[in-house]
Design brief:
The protein is of the alpha/beta class. The chain has two domains: 130 residues, Rossmann fold (3-Layer(aba) Sandwich); 30 residues, no CATH class. The chain has eight helices and four strands, in the order E-H-H-E-H-E-H-H-E-H-H-H. Strands 2-1-3-4 form a four-stranded parallel sheet. The longest helix is centred in the last third of the chain and has 15 residues.
């Protein structure tokens, strides 16, 4: 049985609450990129990590600690989840850093079934919109609870107005 590790996109798992359902479904059912393991008595998941986050142009090695944790479990192959393959502008830098540090490790680009170009484009657009939606922040909540002057024009909380009079 082939021992598998999966690397997911931190934005997808942490910001968008992806639970890797499709990756795990196809792993368990031997579909998608995991179908290649059917001749080797299937595949077994031994670890799943999110990437280390977008590293900037100089920090691709940031992912190595995450990969090391998978390597230490004895993985035979590490799959970059489809979200990494479709969305990550640092994928080639990550791959290069991993190959330099863990050359013998098998890297596979993808998890669940491949999508056509139009589907990938639509996926990227939808994810971009989701990531860029305005979310309420802690500053918004605090500003609504007490007087915190800012550019948004928060007013003092009612009890602070009375005290000021």
């Amino acid at each position: 049985m082939t021992r598998i590790g999966i690397v997911t996109c931190a934005n997808a798992t942490q910001d968008l609450a992806c639970c890797s359902h499709l990756c795990l479904r196809d792993l368990n059912e031997g579909r998608g990129m995991f179908s290649a393991y059917q001749t080797n008595d299937g595949a077994k998941l031994v670890g799943i990590v999110s990437c280390a986050g977008c590293p900037t142009a100089v920090g691709a090695g940031k992912i190595l600690g995450k990969i090391r944790s998978l390597i230490e479990t004895g993985v035979d192959a590490i799959h970059f989840a489809n979200c990494v393959v479709a969305l990550c502008p640092f994928q080639s830098q990550f791959t290069e850093a991993i190959r330099e540090s863990f050359g013998e490790t098998t890297l596979v680009m993808g998890t669940h079934g491949a999508a056509d170009k139009d589907t990938i484009t639509a996926f990227k657009t939808a994810v971009g919109e989701m990531l860029c939606q305005r979310k309420e922040s802690l500053a918004d909540v605090a500003g609504a609870m007490c007087y915190v002057p800012n550019a948004r024009g928060h007013e003092p909380a009612p009890e602070q107005k009375d005290e000021a009079s």
